[in-house]
Design the sequence.
């Protein structure tokens, strides 16, 4: 019997599925159509007694991709999320605006809305610098909240941003994504439970979808040290910077790349940090 299911987590040749309100372990069929699956995917499955098999991955409404290999091929990280929440700590580790910007571009390219959650505001930091950063991104149009990952009030602010949707939490290692996931869902260390495998014990870091009380869900992804975008055209990158896309039509010359050309209407009005992020992304793509 074939039926639809949601992928909760993928680990090697198996996946955890939610089917009719139950979580079941399933094997992935060889040469899986539409595969390989990732957390958030909708799939077709076959149940035969105690054996559950994923038989096909359905078309994705949205996807968060990162580069896979030196050729910058796209590899899906999560699928069908509606919101990307970029979690960034103000200190320990410090907020890395260029990493935030890469995630925002990935969200735009994959069809996701995006928001920013700044954590660790209880630690000593420069309030003026944080305020300027929050004002910058809010001015562009991205919702931003700040606070402490384990604090209930901050979790409520993030939950309000999610607003019943499926949200993927992403960001640098150590910023508090798992702590925030626990505060949002009540599931302790949702993505990092210790699992037994043939070679011993390891901490699972595969993205896992966890329902939110009252509706919606979060997908807590593993922390990263870097995040590289797949191969993209220059215009695709520019279109994912809302403030650049809004002024690009005013440039003196058609096809302006906003990398220092005469008559560029973008450079005078876009913040230096954001135009630097854009140009670094363009340069990285040109180097592939």
Sequence:
């Amino acid at each position: 019997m074939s039926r639809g299911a949601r992928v909760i987590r993928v680990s090697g040749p198996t996946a955890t599925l939610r089917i009719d309100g139950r979580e079941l372990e399933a094997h992935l069929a060889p040469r899986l159509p539409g595969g390989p699956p990732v957390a958030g995917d909708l799939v077709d499955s076959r149940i035969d007694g105690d054996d559950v098999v994923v038989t096909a991955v359905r078309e994705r409404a949205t996807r968060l991709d990162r580069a896979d290999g030196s050729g910058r091929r796209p590899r899906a990280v999560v699928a069908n999320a509606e919101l990307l929440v970029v979690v960034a700590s103000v200190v320990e580790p410090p907020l890395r605006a260029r990493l935030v910007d890469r995630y925002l571009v990935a969200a735009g390219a994959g069809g996701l809305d995006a928001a920013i959650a700044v954590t660790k505001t209880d630690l000593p930091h420069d309030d003026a610098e944080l305020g300027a950063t929050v004002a910058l991104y809010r001015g562009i149009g991205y919702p931003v909240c700040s606070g402490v990952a384990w604090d209930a009030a901050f979790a409520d602010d993030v939950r309000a941003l999610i607003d019943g949707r499926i949200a993927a939490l992403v960001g640098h290692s150590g910023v508090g994504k798992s702590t925030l996931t626990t505060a949002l869902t009540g599931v302790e260390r949702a993505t990092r439970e210790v699992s037994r495998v043939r070679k011993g014990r390891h901490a699972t870091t595969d993205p896992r979808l966890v329902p939110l009380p009252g509706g919606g869900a979060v997908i807590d992804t593993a922390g990263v040290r870097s995040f590289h975008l797949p191969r993209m055209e220059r215009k695709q990158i520019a279109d994912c910077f809302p403030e650049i896309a809004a002024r690009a039509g005013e440039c003196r010359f058609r096809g302006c790349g906003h990398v220092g050309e005469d008559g560029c209407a973008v450079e005078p009005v876009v913040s230096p940090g954001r135009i630097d992020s854009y140009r670094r992304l363009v340069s990285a793509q040109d180097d592939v």
